[in-house]
Design brief:
The protein is α/β, with parallel strands linked by helices. It has helices at residues 13-27, 62-75, 87-91, 99-112, and strands at residues 2-7, 31-36, 49-53, 79-84, 115-121. α2 (62-75) runs parallel beside α4.
């Protein structure tokens, strides 16, 4: 399953993501991973959440970021949830470029039984159609 939290900057998406990761970590039997592009949120997360700062690695576009996620999943068989904050800031790409990424991620989520929670910054009235299936 993929859940996207989409909206303009300053609307509480990151706080909701952090709260959701902490909540899942309290109940999870497996691992919960949180991916961000800085260490700013590291101390807001439970010690049970595995924090990954992608700025420690070479710049990633959406294709190489998908490979990065596959690498994380390949190293740990019991990942229950992966939380990604501001994926369009991590890859520095336009949201419209993510359609194939989300198609591949959906298949990966199903095959690994992993939940993905992703925030994207953008104007609420300009959310691409392909994202609507992942929002509530």
């Amino acid at each position: 399953m993929i859940k996207v939290i989409y909206g303009p900057k300053g609307t509480g998406k990151t706080k909701l993501l952090v709260d959701s990761a902490n909540s899942m970590a309290q109940q999870a039997k497996g691992t919960v991973v949180f991916i961000d592009d800085s260490t700013k949120l590291m101390y807001d997360l439970s010690h049970k959440v595995r924090f990954v700062n992608v700025s420690d690695y070479p710049p990633l576009d959406h294709e190489s970021f998908f490979g990065f996620i596959c690498g994380i999943l390949s190293q740990n068989y019991d990942i229950e949830g992966i939380f990604i904050d501001r994926i369009n800031f991590i890859t520095k790409e336009n949201i419209e470029e993510f359609e194939t990424f989300f198609e591949k991620l959906k298949a990966l989520a199903e095959s690994h039984k992993t939940l993905f929670f992703i925030t994207l910054n953008g104007p609420a009235d300009k959310m691409p159609d392909f994202l609507r299936q992942y929002t509530e």
